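Issue 218. Parser rejects a valid record. Input:
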Amino acid sequence: MIVEVCANSLESALVAEQAGADRIELCSELAVGGLTPSYGLLKAVKEQVSIPVHVLIRPRSGDFTYSDDELKMMLTDIELCVELGFDGIVSGVLLNDFSLDIDRTQKLKNATGDLKFTFHRAFDWVKNPLEALGRLDAMQINYILSSGQQKSAPLGIDLLSELKKKSKSVQIMPGSGVNAGNVDAFMSKGFSAVHLSGTALIKTIPNKPLISMNSEGFLSDDHLAITQLENINAVVAKVK
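Output the parser choked on:
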């Protein structure tokens, strides 16, 4: 069974390799489900990590329905990952009705070339997972990362098992809530790969800051924080 570790930093990637992981999914910002890592992180991991690395391509938090400009950025990021010699890409696009955006996902897949392609946990939002599986099978996607449309993969193991049974070629990779206490269940069901972060919060400074830089009001699955013209106009008009 392949053990894929979702690593959010160089340190996490190095620890995963040291621990015997088979592969890394590299990202940033686990708190929002992962975002595309910076060029600096990509370069450092490529230089210092020897096991295969798949890179998450997700330009922002929130939903998985992207504008034309966002898609261009995603394609540019994939081009960079191909140039740097990474082993795979993790991405995917939905329409705003929670169905697969076949056209845009295919464009991402085409840009990936010979690299492996994982359709990420946007799959857990699709309305008809078995239909989506068939479409991703036809696109020759390599992996689907999923919790079985539940809060954790152990809770979603029944759907995951059904997807595994119905899949023609794509490998179903359980992820979310996988740990040493429950991985046996996925082994017994015959899954070929599992995904986990294995993280813990480590204190980095001795005292808590006076104010927090985390803004919970910006975190939403169905809203985006976007600069508003009238808000900036009003300030510019005051000071200019």
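Fixed in the parser; the record now loads. The beta strands are 2-7, 23-26, 53-56, 88-91, 116-119, 143-146, 171-174, 193-196.
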